[in-house]
Amino acid sequence: MGNIDLDPAFIQSTEHRPVPKVVEVTEIPVIDLSGSRDESLIISEIGKACEEWGFFQIVNHGVPSELCKEVEIEGKKFFGLESEEKRKVKRDEVNAMGYHDGEHTKNVRDWKEVFDYLVEDNAQVPSSYEPDDKDLRTLTNQWPQHSPQFRKTMEEYAREVEKLSYKLLGWILSSLGLAADKFHGCFKNQLSMVRLNYYPPCPFPDLALGVGHHKDSSALTVLAQDEVGGLQVKRKSDGEWIPVRPCPNAYIINVGDIVQVWSNDKYESVEHRVVVNTTKERFSVPFFFFPAHHVNVSPAEELVSEENPAKFKEYNYGKFFANRNRSDFKKRDVENIQIQHFRILN
Ligand SMILES: O=C(O)CCC(=O)C(=O)O
Ligand SMILES: [Fe+2]
Question: What interface predicted TM-score (ipTM) does this complex get?
Fold first, then answer.
């Protein structure tokens, strides 16, 4: 990376390039989760934010800030290793976890390196996306050997952020009038994972993106970002790209595809992307709250009626996950990995 010529794999099509534009910037809502606040107020603020933005920030969330700092330090140390060292834990056909520097979003290469690990190691996934294939395979974490602290920190972090995710999901479901623990069981043997994202400075910030525009396939995502900035969210009211300003010790939460389906479209999984810059490296850590492979996702029956029929057909999350990680085509079939594929058209 960083050559004078940009590898065409990174070049966004004209319509997706970030253009500097003056828009009236509104901020995504910031919600204070302090235990002293009335829970029903928190629930109604979350509901409003999910409906209006699909995105919000949270403060006083209970994850220790020293632990978050430690994740950043250990993460940056890892990405600073020689390429050869990082490649020892490289993701491949067999192992979908670990280090990767060729991530693509919508067939365009992202200007970043990643390290992925599962919250529940050795999670089972379907071996293929073919509906009739019942075989399962095991996904196993790969840990770099340069420092024992790396694994310890990352595992501790995963447990904390998982706890927070259950709470957030409960509040989101309560805001829809559903039981807070309605989908709790879906996350036993979950496929949830933490991703460390490292975005090096980029000499071509007007042609390439750190992550191209996309929606998350999770139930929800809990994202930590450093002070550099670069995340942009597509504002629902007018489709403008709005920067999410870094806020110290806050998390950015977004509704993922699964909550969109469970809510029968009341809450939308909103598009977002990451722009890069010429001088600063950026570090971010999303936690994707993914259910277990056997979970079938469909709109909550309480939210479906004659006047408001189901907007989605049921889909199996494991097959969806396997399809996302298909290794039998270099360029991913974008259409296949969208929940739109399961939308009921009438
Ligand atoms: O780095 C970020 O701010 C967001 C990354 C992201 O959207 C993703 O990994 O899905
Ligand atoms: Fe994302």
Answer: 0.99
